[in-house]
Amino acid sequence: MSNNPILKMDFPDPDVIFHDGFYYMATTTMHFFPGGEILKSKDLVNWEHYTYVYDRLESTPAQKLEGDQHIYGKGMWAPCIRYNDGTFYYLFSSNDMQKTYLYRSSHLKGPWKRSEIKGFYHDSSLLFDEGKTYIVYGNREIHLTELNDDISAPKEGGLDRVIVNDADNKMLGYEGSHIYKIDGRYRVFFIHSLKDRWRRVEAAFSSDSLEGEFVGGDVFDSDLGIRDSGIAQGGIVQGADGKWHAVLFQDSGAIGRVPVVVPVTWENGKPVFTGKLDLGIKEEPCTLYGSDNFEKDFKDFWQFNHEPDESLIKFDNGFHITTDKVSPNIFHAKNTLTQRMTAPLSEAEVTIDAKDINDGDVACLSAFIGDFALVGITKRDGELYSVMMSNVSEGSIWDLSEDTIKTEELIKLSNDRLTVRISCDFTEDTATCYVKLNGEFKKIGKPHKMRFRLDHFTGVRSALSLYSTSKAGGTAVFTNYIRK
Question: Which of 62, 138, 172, 415 can bridge 193 by disulfide, Cβ–Cβ 3.0-4.6 Å?
Fold first, then answer.
């Protein structure tokens, strides 16, 4: 248990395989690009960035933040990663496109070849069995469907049935399917909630044939003493030592959904999640976040919020952004560059050169989420100011509130360069903003409460942005990004 959570940052809906001495994990990357991130580990505890599966998806106006369109809370969800007969498979559904994508490669580094499976398969999982391919998917009603030979559509006349049902669960019915064939028996793992209150629980069902009855129930209802929200949804994997583990996630407030490893044993053919984990020394995950000078490019731990427009950016001793549209707020800022924050404390600072911004522009560092906090430079009536802004979302947890954004504080500047800092305390889910004036950091605005909501459906990220509220064409340069 001393190793959990294995990563104190947002890596939701994990799936995992073991291949040639290493574990590889795929997780949801939502509306961030490049997407389809794969992590690599030798021991299930220490993970590093390995690769991304795709740079672009469909390049729709919404994926590119054109006009007022966006795909917050959508994008790619719940990937499945598998290896079969010399080929790696990476499967996921896109909630804005209502499509299911399948990427294939002979090597995890790629190149990856993209195809589609006709239909939309929520939280899907692949099974390769005796020369046939099946997909398991759904929410509340879990379906098992046989696919055709090239894995492009359901097989005509093939197996197609509902294997389990949780339709009367008004909290969260079965979803997050992961199917395996282990010791000749077909086993499917799910997430759902307790029916009387919100709490994530792991369930497992099994059958001796794909046509037979799947029987089972809850197998893991625990928070491991970390946070009272339950732990569930993810894949199970067997390492070279023959031991089994589950890689699941836990809702952890504004930081997001963090991955947890739970040992699995088998008693009378049934999985038992033990909850006792001690796999060795935990090291700092140096390739999953960090500092960057943006000398000629950006490091692999950065992702863009939505698909970038490379004609508007360059990396030349700094991250240069130019705007090409008028945007009402940070949510519509093209080319926002992000990286994950880490619990329990995260701090980031950056220097902003704003000599070429226009009136109404905001160049900023933010704790980026629906309920964001930002600090940076803005220009008003020809004068430059340091600014702190924040948002408190209202309405449904799915709704992105944009009319509640407010300016907390302005401080007039005497020059066009400013170093800013944001400090996030995830024990309280607060972000505090600072500006460096006369050689010392000064707090600006007040500590801001951040919340994980389904409007973004992601944990807080550190983000660099420029947006124009009056006139497009301004440019800002970000240098010396320091992550602590």
Answer: 172
User: CA 99, 103, 108: angle at the middle one, nearest 5?
Assistant: 150
Amino acid at site 17: I
Report pLDDT for 440. 97
d(CA 265, CA 260): 16
β-strands 22-26, 15-19: how paired? antiparallel
Give the C-alpha separation, 433 to 427, whole Å: 17
d(CA 241, CA 244): 9
DSSP state for residue 253 in the 8-state scheme: G
The CATH number that applies at residue 463 is: 2.60.120.200
What one-character DSSP code corresponds to residue 441? E
pLDDT for the residue numbered 1 = 45
Q: What percent of the chain has pLDDT over 90?
A: 93
Count structural domains, the chain.
2
Residue 284 lies in a domain: no
pTM equals 0.96
User: How much is the pLDDT for 225?
Assistant: 84
- Do both 235 and 327 map to the same domain? no
Q: Are 455 and 327 in contact (CB under 8 A)?
A: no
Query: Do residue 254 and residue 125 come from a single domain?
Result: yes
Q: Please tell me the distance from the alpha carbon of residue 381 to that of residue 399, in angstroms, as a whole number.
A: 33
Does 52 share its domain with 102? yes
Tell me which of 230, 257, 273 is where a domain ends: 273
Q: Say yes or no to pLDDT of 345 above 90.
A: yes
- Structural domain for 263, as ranges: 15-273
How far is residue 55's CA from residue 110's CA, in Å, rounded to a whole number?
A: 12
- By CB atoms closer than 10 A (0-12, 13-18, 19+), residue 169 is middle
Q: Could you tell me which residues come within 8 angstroms of residue 472 by beta carbon, excluding any fewer than 6 positions away? A: 323, 324, 325, 326, 358
**Tens-place pLDDT, residues 56-102:** 999 999 999 999 999 999 999 999 999 999 999 999 999 999 999 99
